[in-house]
Amino acid sequence: MRKVPMTVCGAEKLRAELNELKSVARPRITAAIAEARAHGDLKENAEYHAAREQQSFCEGRITEIENKLADCEVIDVKSIEATGRVIFGTTVSLFNLNTDKTVTYQIVGEDEADVPAGKISVGSPIARAIMGKYEGDEIVVKAPAGDIAYEIETVRHL
């Protein structure tokens, strides 16, 4: 099975969420189930059913995060020599040749993508177009609204 790339920050966030779910959410839900059980008849006990639903979601999310962490390869871009080449984890400033505006994106794993925060998935059209290219290269991104021409201004290992 191929390992899925993930940044150090992305892996830390998943580990923090996993710890929160296991040490805070799981015990809170277990207590809520015990309290709801104490109220008697479980068939018509909405609190019990809601707590069981929360438990199901929580356990599913724990399993999902554990699987993601097991299947990922954490890449620390700061430990890789900066050569001006776009690689996974780098932060890239792109100058839009059509609008004369600059946008900055960090190339991250699928689960870490957050476009408003400037994090694009390694599988996104822009990331695919710039991977392996160098500062100063011009690229064309095939977008639903049409082709967009960019020049790679800077590639940083942050």
Briefly, what is this?
Helix content is 39%, strand content 27%. The protein is α/β, with parallel strands linked by helices. A hairpin with a 2-residue loop joins strand 6 and strand 7.
Protein architecture, described:
The protein is α/β, with parallel strands linked by helices and 158 residues long. The protein folds into two domains: 4-75, Orthogonal Bundle (Helix Hairpins), CATH 1.10.287; 80-156, Chitinase A, domain 3 (Roll), CATH 3.10.50. Helices cover 39% and strands 27% of the residues. The chain contains three helices and seven strands; from the N terminus they run E-H-H-E-E-E-E-H-E-E. It has helices spanning 8-38, 46-70, 125-130; strands spanning 4-7, 72-75, 91-96, 101-108, 119-121, 138-143, 146-156. A five-stranded mixed beta sheet has the order 5-4-3-7-6. The longest helix is centred in the N-terminal third of the chain and has 31 residues, at 8-38. The chain starts with a strand and ends with a strand. The model has no long low-confidence stretch (mean pLDDT 93).
CATH superfamily caption of the largest domain: Transcription elongation factor, GreA/GreB, C-terminal domain
Mean of all residue-level pLDDT scores? 93
Sheet/helix structural class: alpha/beta
CATH class of the largest domain: Alpha Beta
CATH topology of the largest domain: Chitinase A, domain 3
Q: What number of structural domains do the residues give?
A: 2
Helix content: 25-40%
Q: How large a portion of the residues is in β-strands, by DSSP E?
A: 25-35%
CATH architecture of the largest domain: Roll
Strand order of the largest sheet: 5-4-3-7-6
Number of helices: 3
Distance between the termini: 29 Å
The string of secondary-structure elements, in order, is EHHEEEEHEE
Specify Rg, calculated over alpha carbons: 22 Å
Biggest sheet architecture: 5 strands, mixed
Shape assignment? elongated
Number of strands: 7
